[in-house]
C-alpha cells in the first residue's frame, strides 16, 4: 500500500518534471519565433538559427510551415501561428505551443515571407534536424533530400552524421551522398573511389549525376578530364542501368503476380460454380460487390477498431455472399439445370437487380474502405524496388483461400460429394448423395469465395455498384483459359494472365495491354476450346 | 383455297408488313400535314423515338437469326450495331466540314483538339456516302467473318461462344475508349449537321429517316423470312437441334453457322447506321457488354423462335424502358432484371410462345 | 496377314490400280480398319482393332457394353481420331484425313444409338435435309425440290410407315417412329456403307421384323454394318457376325460358329 503510494508520488513528480521541461521548451521556442515577426531578413535569419537550435518536433513543424508559406501572424492578437493548409479559412495552431486555435479567415492573417537565402538555410536546417530523427527511414529520406543541395555546410553536416550513424541503410545513403561530393574533387583518386561507391547505388539522382559527368562543360571540354575515369563512369552508369532494369523487372513481376492473384481470387469462386457445377453465374461479379460492401459496413460498425475490422470482415463477407448465392441457387438456378444459356440470362438479370439494390440502398457513389495501418505503406528493399504491403497481403490471402478450397474439395466428405455430383448427378443420387443440398452448398461455397474476393478488392479499388461488372469478363476469361473444371488451371491461368498483362503495359499502355490479352484469349479458346488443362475422356465429349 | 392462301401469306407476315406499311404512310402525314395543334399530330420527337424503336427491332431481328434459329447465344451483337453506327457517324462527321467549333475544314473537331496532324488513313473516303454505306455493310460483316471463321471451325459452342462474343465487344469497348484510336474516344462522334445535304434537325429529314428505317426493317424481315424458309434455313435449325446429326448428313456445320452469323452482323450494322443520324450521337457505350446482353432479353421476351416475336419484344421492352426511365428511373433495372429472371423461368418461348399456348 | 494387307493397300493407294495378288481382297472390300487404337486417359477403348467389310455384305457386330462398338463407329465417321492405325474406305479414300461431312459425302451413313432426328422440323423436312444432294451453303439457299425428289421422299415415307405423319414435328413421334425416321434419313442419303447402331431398340416385335426385312433387302446393293444387342434379331439377319471385346475382335464367323466359340461363351456368360 505504502509502496504503491510512493510509486504514485514518484510518477506524479516525474510527470510534473517533464511538463515543466515542456513549458521551458515552449518558452524558448516562443521567444525565438517572436524574432520572425521582424521585417528585417537578417533578424529573421537569426531567428531561424535559434529555432533550428531548439531541435524539437514543434520547432521542425514551425520551420516546415515557414518554408511552405503557412506561417502567419494574426492581425488581431499578433501571435505567430501555423495554418493547416492554403484554404480560405484554414485551421490554425500556435507556433510555439502547437495548441489548437480554431480557424481564422485569411484576411485576418499576415504571412511571414522569406527570401531565397533563407529558403536555402531552412532546407539545410530541416535536413539537419531530420538527420537526427529517431526513425532510420526518415534519416535515409533526409540524406537523399540533400543529394541536390550539396554544399560545404551540408557536407560538414553529413560527415558529422556519418561519424555518429550506426544504421546500415543510413550509412549507405550517407556514403553515397559523400561520394557524390567527391565526384567533383580535383583529385582523380578521390573521384575513382567515389565512382567505386556510386556504381553500387541504384538511386535515380546518382545515375543522373553520373550521366551529367559524361557531358561537356561550358568551355566545351569534357567535365571529366581523365579518359580512364570517363570509361569507368560509363561502366558505372551501365551497371546502375542494368541493376535498375533487373529490379524493374522484379517489380513488374510482382505487380503482375498481385494482379494475377486478384484474378485468381475472383475466378476461383467462378471455377467452382461454372467448372464444377456447369452453371454460368453472371451475378458472380455482384457477389464480389456484396463482399466489398460487407467490408465497408463492418468498418462503419467498428470505427474505433480499424486494425481489426478487415479481419472481422472476412467471415462476414463470406457469409453474406454465400447466403446470397444459396438464395440464387434455390430460387432460380436449380430450375434451369441443363440449360446453361438460360441460366446465363437469368443470373444476369439477378446481377442487374443486385446492382440497382446497392445503388438504392448505399447511393450510386463510390464508398471508400479504409486501409488498416498494417496493410499500408511499403517494404523498401532498395532504391529501385519497393513492395506495397496491401498487394503482398492480398497475394498471401489469395493463396490461402485457394489452398483451403482445394483442400475442402479433395479431403472432406463434402468435397467428395461435390465431385461425385459434378461427374454424374444421377449416379451420385443413386448412391445416396442429396443432389439438391450439395448443389446449394457448392453454389454457396463458390459465392462465398466471391465475397472474399470482394474483401480483397475493397483494398485495391473503389467500392461501388459497378465493381462487379468490371471484373466479370476477366474472371470468365481466366476460368475458360485455364480449362473448365480444373482449379489448378484457374490458378495458372490467373497468374499468367496477370503477369502477361503487367509486362505488356510498359510497351502498350494499360488499355491496349488488356485488349491484347483479351484478343489472345479469344484466339486461344478458338485453337483449344477446352482451355489450358482440358478434362479428357468420354465424359468431356458429351 | 383459304388454307393455301394462308400458307402462302402467313398471318404474322401480313400483320408485320401491314403495320410497317401503315406507319410509312401515316407517320409522314400526321407529322408534316396535320397541323401542330391537332390532337392527331405526331411530334418530331415521337417520330424520332419511333425510328429508334424500329432500329432496335431490326437489331433484335439480327439477334434472333443467330440465337433463335441457329442456337448461338451472342452476347456481343451490340458490337456490330456500333460498328455500323460508327461508319455512319464518320460520314456525318465529314459532312460537318468547316462548320465545327474549330472551323477546321480538314479535321473533325476532336482531332483538332487532340492535335492530330492529319486525317488518319482509315478516315479516308468517308466523305463519300456510297463508300460509307459500303463500310456499314463491310466492317461488321468482315469482323463477323473473321471471328466466326475462327470460332466455328474450332467448334467453340454454347456458353464458351457466348463468353468470347462478350469478350469481343468488351475488347472493342476498351479500344474505342482510347483517344489514340481516332474515333473520338470517350465522347464518340456527335454534333452532326446534315446527311446528303439535308439538315438533320429538319422535320422532313427526320420523317424521311423514319420512313427509310421502316422500309429497311420490312426488307430485313422479308430477307430473314426468306433465309429461314429456304433449305439453308432448315439446315440451320437442324444444326441447332442436333449438330452432330447435321454433320453426319454431310453438312459443313461451320460454314452454315458462319454465313448466318455474317448475315446477322450485316443486318445489325445497318440498324446501327440508321440509328446514329436519328439519335445524333455514337459513342463507345454501345459496345458495353450490358447493351449487348440487353438485346438478348428483347428477343427472349418477344419469343426467340419467331422473327415477329423478336420485333414485338424489342418494341415492348424499349417502350417500357422509355416509360420507366422517365417516370421512375430507379425501378428500371429492377424491372429489366425481373424480365431476365421471370422470362427465362416462365416464358421459355416469350410472349409468342404464350400466345401459341393460349391459342391451343 | 495384316502386314501383308497394309503393304498391298499402300501400293493400291499409290497406284490406284491394285496389284494382281491383292486384287480380290481390295475389290471385294469396301472398308478396312487396320490396327486402330483409341485411348481415353489411358483407357484403351479400341486396342489394335482390325476389321474388313465386304462389298454388299450385311455384317452384325455384337459385344458387351464397353467393348468399343460405338467408338469404332465414331472412328469410321470421323468423330474420333484414332491414336494409331488406318481406315480406308472404298479402295483409296483415307477416312482419317476427312471431316465428318466429307466422310458422309464419300458415301458413309450412320444411324445413332440414341435416335437423333431434328425434333423441331417436320418429318418431311427431316428426310429432305438427309437427301443426297449438293449440301453447300449457296446450293441449299436456293434449293427447290423437284417433283422427282418429292416422289422419292414420299416413297421413303411409305417404306418407313410415316406417310401419315409427314407434316408432324419429329419431336412428336414415338421412340420407335424416331428410329424409323432415322433409318429413312439413312435411306435418303443413299450411302454405299450404312452403319446402323441398335436399330430395333424400343420397337415392337412387328416393327423389328420389318426392320430385319428392310436391312436384308438393302444388303447386296449397299454394305450394311449393324450393331445390336438383340440376339434374336441378329440371328434373323446375320450371315457373318463379329464379336468385339475390350476393343478387339474376339471372334468372327457365322452366328453358329460364334455362339459355340468358348472365348465368346466365357465373355458373355462370365464362366
What can you tell me about this protein's structure?
The complex is a heterotrimer of chains A (about 550), B (about 350) and C (about 270). Chain A has three domains: about 25-115, no CATH class; about 135-225, no CATH class; about 250-540, ABC transporter involved in vitamin B12 uptake, BtuC (Orthogonal Bundle), CATH 1.10.3470. Chain A has helices at about 1-35, 40-55, 55-70, 115-130, 135-145, 150-165, 170-180, 190-200, 205-215, 225-275, 285-300, 305-330, 340-360, 390-410, 415-425, 425-430, 435-460, 470-480, 485-510, 510-525, 540; strands at about 70-75, 80-85, 90-95, 100-105, 110, 380, 385-390. The longest helix of chain A has about 50 residues, at about 225-275. The radius of gyration of chain A is 32 Å and the shape is globular. In chain A, helix 3 packs antiparallel against helix 4, helix 6 packs antiparallel against helix 7 (about 170-180) and helix 11 packs antiparallel against helix 12. Chain A is mainly alpha-helical. Residues about 535-540 of chain A have low confidence and may be disordered. Chain B is mainly α and about 350 residues long. Chain B has one domain (about 10-290). Chain B has helices at about 1-10, 10-35, 45-70, 75-95, 110-115, 130-155, 160-175, 205-230, 230-240, 245-250, 255-280, 290-300, 305-325, 330-345, 350-360, and strands at about 190, 195, 200, 280. In chain B, the strands form two sheets. In chain B, strands 1-4 form a two-stranded antiparallel ribbon. The longest helix of chain B has 27 residues, at about 205-230. Chain B is globular. Chain C folds into two domains: about 1-105, P-loop containing nucleotide triphosphate hydrolases (Rossmann fold), CATH 3.40.50; about 105-240, P-loop containing nucleotide triphosphate hydrolases (Rossmann fold). Chain C has twelve helices and ten strands. A six-stranded mixed beta sheet of chain C has the order 6-7-8-3-9-10, with helices on both faces. Chain C is globular. In chain C, about 40% of the residues are buried. The chains are: A mainly alpha (about 550), B mainly alpha (about 350), C alpha/beta (about 270). The interface of A and B includes residues 357 and 523 of A.
